[in-house]
Amino acid sequence: MKLLDFSSMFFTIAFLVYCVAFILYGVAVMGRVWRNRDPEQHMKKWGRLSFLVSTLGLVAHLIYFFTRWAGAGHIPVSNMFEFMSTLSMMIIIAFTVIFIIYRKTLLGLFAVPIAIIIMAYAAVFPQEAQPLIPSLQSWWLQVHVTMAALGESFFAIGFAAGFMYLLRTVDFNSKEKSDRRQQRGVEFTLLSIVVVIGFIASVYAFRVGGYESVFTQEQESKVSRVEYKLPPIVAPYQSKVESFQSFLGMKEPLFEAPSWMVGINAGRKLNTIIWSVLAGLILYALIRLILRKPLGRAIHPLLKGLDADDLDEITYRSIAIGFPIFTLGALIFAMMWAQIAWGRFWGWDPKEVWALITWLFYSVYLHLRLSRGWQGKKSAWLAVLGFMIVMFTLVGVNLVIAGLHSYAGTN
Amino acid sequence: MGKSRKKVQIVILLMIVILGGYAIISNVNGSGGKPEVGDKAPSFNLLGLDGSVHNLDEYKGKAMVINFWGTWCKPCVKEMPALQAQSEKWKDKDVVVIGINAGEDVMSVDNFVKQANISFPILLDPNKEAIQSYGISPLPTTLFVAADGRIKKIHLGELDLSTLDYEIEQLVSNQ
Amino acid sequence: MIPDILSFKNTKCECGHQNPVGTVLCEACGKPISKEDQESDKLLEMRYDGMARRSQRSTPNMIDRIWNFFSSVKIAVYMIVLTLLGSMFGTIFPQESTFLNIDAATYYPETYGTAGLIYYKLGLSHTYESWWFVLLLVMIGASLVICSLDRVLPLYKALSKRKIRKHMQFLTRQKVVYQTRLDEDEEVWINNIVPALKKRGYRVHTDGSALLAEKYRFSRWGPYILHIGLIIFLLAVLARGLPGLNMDQHLAFPEGEIKPIPNTSFYLKNEKFTVEYYTEDDLPEEFKGKGKMLPKLFQTQATLYECTADCKDPSKEPQLVEVDSHPIEVNDPLNYKGLKAYQFDFDTNPILRSVTPSLIEKKTGKDIGQFKLDIRNPERTYQVGEYTLNLVEKYMDFGMNDLGEPVSISPNPNAPSFLFLIKGPNLPAEGVQYFYFPKQIDKQRFQQDIINEKLAGAYNLFELDVDGMSNVDFSMSTTYLNIRVDKVMPFVWLGSAIGMLGLVMGFYWQHRRIWIRIDEGDLTLAAHTNKNWFGIRKEITVVLQKVNMEVDEKSLDNGGNQV
User: Fold this and answer.
1) Given this model, what pLDDT does residue A405 score?
2) Most CB contacts within 10 A, which of A5, A17, C324, C383?
3) Is the dihedral of CA A60, A63, A69, A70 positive or negative?
4) pLDDT at residue C104 above 70?
5) Residue C495 and residue C233 in contact, taking contact as beta carbons nearer than 8 Å
6) Is C171-216+510-556 assigned to CATH 3.30.310.50?
7) Cα B30 from chain centroid?
């Protein structure tokens, strides 16, 4: 187990190095306007340093990945923690590829935090390496999951660049209807990111506090038990309290999950979602209070002087690079594996369907762009929406809809 | 060029219509290959309690009532007298009643048949082949097959004497 | 006729080339055709290089209209979006096909309430088999065929019909343009730049002081190859519905029994089913001591037989020949000439197959003799010593009905029981009844001794008893296999491979063209690519550097937004 501890250490190191890289990218971009310096020179110098640091982070991340592979005896993509940390690693790989092509320092300011958030999200899940169940014992696990994750990572970079394009080009001072709508769209995207951060923050806060409440539910004479790690706002449908740790004077759940939410875990998942949204909204309100203006408008000036066309091009390019990889990994390899394991290459399992939806969505993006001339904002919005679909496929499907892929273990 | 182009267009559109129509029809009617009302009754090749092999061809030209049953299934046992009565009533009017037992052994079936005084042919389906090709899930299930071999009605669950009588009458009068 | 003549006149370019209806840019020299377009200074519409799409005709009839409908990318996008939305609806609740045996009409409302009822009524519980979903897929297929046909030929023509010296407007209205004054000799400059271009993989054609450099043209065929792959894929999937090409069965195989695979001439024997769990040492800390069992291996050691004679006659024993054997695991099916057996599920409840009890005289404990009692197919009579045992009744799963009569409550041998009539010395001529439960637990549960005392009264002199486990035969477990035949799979993979090839060609290479013309010392360079403008600008700067021209990458951009 020594190797696994070593591996965990490098996970933490990678995380911290990414955080440093993020700050450096911030200095590189925001420091342009500081006095006593040539903006070009500053950007170049600090940009190079930040890229060096984020590459160092990637090296640490790769060490984590391969030592864990060696330690656990199988590729670390078999549960939610492993998958999400691999995804964040792939995002940095995709970022590195795109950076080498375009050399846009600013991209780091947006791509690195996505990887950081996903890494933090990964750490929410149980981190122990567990042996593979029979259905996962296949060579295809490696190629299917890594290729799918890599394709999705390019979509993530497409999202980062597309979102930057929007922050750069949306007119935040206009009162016109279409501009207002776009302002709200940008704000909503930012809010979604804040909600994810809120989720991670609340899970960590209560984990540090050691919070736990337990419910039992009796259904068809079978008793199941669930441990809540967040204070229960919602109890599972028709459940009994086994133990309840009070929180801020809350001594019992505020209400009960509706009857159509089957199973004891549905209640806990709903509770988690409520907590995430609550924490996210509070966090958002705090940021708004400090900034005294919408987040989008606050970020907008940072991107001044940036070539919007380049961002548009980067968005498109990373999606164009990611699309064939995604097709191969998430659809073709998935079909081949399904054929070998279950004897049917396609079974309309929710995860399969959502991979198809993602694929169809990006094929719409490409058709609109290549044949209908959709560019700029329209295309950037599609890139943002596309990544939301990707995230729903990876996280939402496991959280909300369960299928054959549910072994991935969600919190 | 104009003429040949038009021909190509028509040929391609026609192919799309044919293939597309086939795709839709086979998918919507597909229901997993399970025969439905209006379909031909699938053939079977089963050993009867009498020790000889029976198949659909023997009953060609006759209307059939095919009953899938088991000795453990209460409604099946309950409806047996009605089936027996009807088989005697319609014997001379080219209606046969056939019971297909769902996978039990000879002895259980034989004992039951003797006890219940059943005289219509009982076939054994130890490997549930007929059960599968007829797509039977709950027992009892009774199929009413017209003389042309087409399924006229599929009844799920227990039958009483009058319903059975009515259904057979429908089956015969429709010819 | 008049519009025809007008358009006929309109499509003739000043360079003398006669263009078909619908052409945007002259096929030969690239000059815009329409008057308004000639006067504009916007970027040119370079899609399909300004060629007329095949379907565009001045007087469309019915066929043309249908053709045009499917030929439109806009319509194709709408269809993809509808398919996407339809697929989403299908994932709200589990599909009917995920359950082996349910009554959908009651399952959805019972499990999901009103929402489930609506879901079921709308037919969304079988979204992917519904007529509208299949229709959408068919329409996408049609669109794939027609869109490709309509564009491939004109594009092919456009790319092969090239005049090296293009019209000035064609050049200056490209997205990448560079104009400068040349001091050297025109021909010399052209000759100098040719090797620089060739070095970067361009095929270069010159015509005096005009030049065309082109590379990776095959990339333009990428999308169409992808579409061909998708069509093959869809056709293969469609062909699965044809009889004989696809079979899918879910069957149970108790250990040690040869069972037929319906509708085939094959029989399969489950020699041994193994399930292994990870030991405590293999498990991570959090799992230890929690009694959590994590499976490590499911394996069915299977033997496949083929029937060679007496196959269709249930009154005879089929004659079998072993053809294959394989340890079936989850990711490792048995595969015999396209017939595949996949590990799906298992049941480790042992099933009693036969017992070999002894007939024992109760008073003396004397063992009169043994006989083998097959649970499923017992004999009618057994001869043990001087005694005859007639099997009168058997119940696979003993129970009582409402009238208090003994019945079998299921066809499964959960609680088998047998009623014998024993005849022989010291017994009445009509015999004595004896109830026998082979399973010890049932003996007590159904009070075998009390029953027999009532049945035999004073003649309750014998009992059946099994001596030791060697006289009991169990099938230890049952494995569930999916038996499948899928003859179209090679075509599914072929379609996927072709599609993937098209994607790689289309996305990882870009068709790049550079035109140069020099008019009395005025150099005009223009370039076009179907993707990655950044790349081509960079490449042009590098090439120009080779002929000692320093150009800023960004300044090559002629502005505007065009792919």
Assistant:
1) 45
2) A17
3) negative
4) yes
5) yes
6) yes
7) 17
Confidence of residue C563 (pLDDT cuts 50, 70, 90): very low
Average pLDDT in chain C: 83
pLDDT at residue C307 in the model: 87
Whole-angstrom CA distances from A219 to A244, A263, B101 are: 21, 9, 36
In this structure, are residues A110 and A91 in contact, taking their beta carbons and an 8 Å threshold? no
Out of C260, C378, C395, whose CB is closest to B127?
C260
With beta carbons under 8 A apart, name residues in chain B contacting C410: 72
Query: Are A405 and A341 in contact, with CB atoms under 8 Å apart?
Result: no
**Fold for the domain defined by B35-173:** Glutaredoxin (3.40.30)
pLDDT for position A220: 66
What is the C-alpha separation between C481 and C252, in angstroms, rounded? 6
- Return the sign of the alpha-carbon dihedral for residues C188, C192, C197, C198: positive
For residue A249, the enclosing domain spans 180-293
Preferred mutation among C88, C496, C510 to probe A, highest tally of A CBs within 10 A = C496
CA distance B89 to chain C (A): 29
Min CA distance, C137 vs chain A (Å)? 12
Q: Is C181 exposed, middle or buried (0-12, 13-18, 19+ CB in 10 A)?
A: exposed
3-state secondary structure of A208: helix
DSSP tally for chain A: helices H, then strands E: 13, 5
More confident: A101 or C15: A101
ipTM computed for the complex:
0.89
Non-local (6+) Cβ contacts of B167 within 8 A are B65, B144, B153, B155, B159
Kindly report, residue by residue over A58-82, the tens digit of the pLDDT: 999 999 999 999 988 889 998 889 9
Give residue limits of the domains in chain B: 1-33, 35-173
Residues A32-50: tens digit of each pLDDT: 777 777 777 888 889 999 9
Specify the pLDDT at position B31.
Answer: 52
CB contact under 8 A, B12 and C145: yes
Joined together, the tokens standing for residue A64 give 């984590």
Q: What is the rounded CA–CA span in Å between residue A261 and residue A269?
A: 10
Q: Are residues A144 and A71 in the same domain?
A: yes
Q: Tell me the average pLDDT across C18-36.
A: 78
Nearest to C411 among B12, B52, B104 (CB): B104
What is residue C286's predicted lDDT score, i.e. its pLDDT? 65
At C475, the pLDDT band (50, 70, 90 cuts) reads confident
Phi, psi of B98 (to 5 degrees): -125, 135
CB within 8 Å of C405: residues ≥ 6 apart: none
- Among C72, C83, C84, C286, most A C-beta atoms within 10 A, so best to mutate, is C84
Tokens of A374: 């959709």
Together in a domain, A312 and A359: yes
**CB of C21 closer than 8 Å to CB of C11:** yes
B128 with C63: Cβ contact below 8 A: no
- List chain A residues with CB under 8 Å of C129: none
On whether both A302 and A277 belong to a single domain, the answer is no
